[in-house]
Specification:
Layout lengths: L9 H28 L19 H38 L16 H34 L7 H30 L1
Helix pairs in contact: 1-2, 1-3, 2-3, 3-4
Keywords: Membrane, Transmembrane, Transmembrane helix
Organism: Daucus carota subsp. sativus
Protein name: Maternal effect embryo arrest 60
Length: about 180
């Protein structure tokens, strides 16, 4: 026997998921802006004692570039998520026959469009996290010494970052792909 209202909370679940994407992206965007306010060329910001470990200007340039790429990705992801929320809210009030494939109590939404939108938004968030991770690698090199220098402090800061963040991104991507196929 089928559940009496299998999609009763469908719209609110989707809107809550989209809210979650935009909230997390907002927190990461705040981190990006805080990172952009930091002056990497300020000598007081460095803990480097060996002059051969000082980073070159290319690392500071990469730091800024990765922050900008990260911001762009998070903004892209959030705008897609906000657009999907608007589509759900507009479809709720329209009765448009083109949205007949996925019916909720409150609205009708094309399931394929919703899935692709979630996937695109998730890819934007994944890219933003990857770029933010690379920016943090550059921050560690600026504050603790370059990776090529062989500083143990730099490696102890960067290695967990390069292990934990990609693992979390793989788990997130797995859940997104699982949700996409269901």
């Amino acid at each position: 026997m089928e559940h009496p209202n299998p999609t009763r909370f469908g719209t609110s679940i989707h809107i809550t998921a989209l809210d979650g994407i935009t909230n997390v992206n907002s927190l990461f965007t705040l981190a990006v802006f805080i990172g952009l306010t930091w002056n990497p060329s300020d000598p007081n910001n460095s803990l480097i004692s060996d002059p051969k470990c000082f980073p070159g200007p290319d690392i500071a340039e990469n730091l800024i570039a990765f922050h900008v790429y990260s911001f762009s990705s998070f903004l892209f992801s959030s705008l897609i998520a906000l657009g999907l929320k608007q589509v759900i809210r507009i479809a709720r009030n329209s009765g448009d026959p083109h949205w007949h494939l996925f019916t909720f109590d409150m609205c009708r939404v094309n399931k394929s469009v919703l899935r692709v939108g979630y996937l695109v938004s998730a890819v934007g968030s994944l890219c933003g996290c990857g770029f933010l991770m690379m920016a943090l690698v550059n921050v560690a090199q600026i504050k603790l010494g370059t990776l090529s220098c062989g500083s143990g402090d730099t490696y102890s800061a960067v290695v967990p970052l390069l292990i934990l963040v990609p693992c979390a991104l793989v788990i997130y991507a797995s859940f997104v792909l699982y949700a996409f196929t269901q």
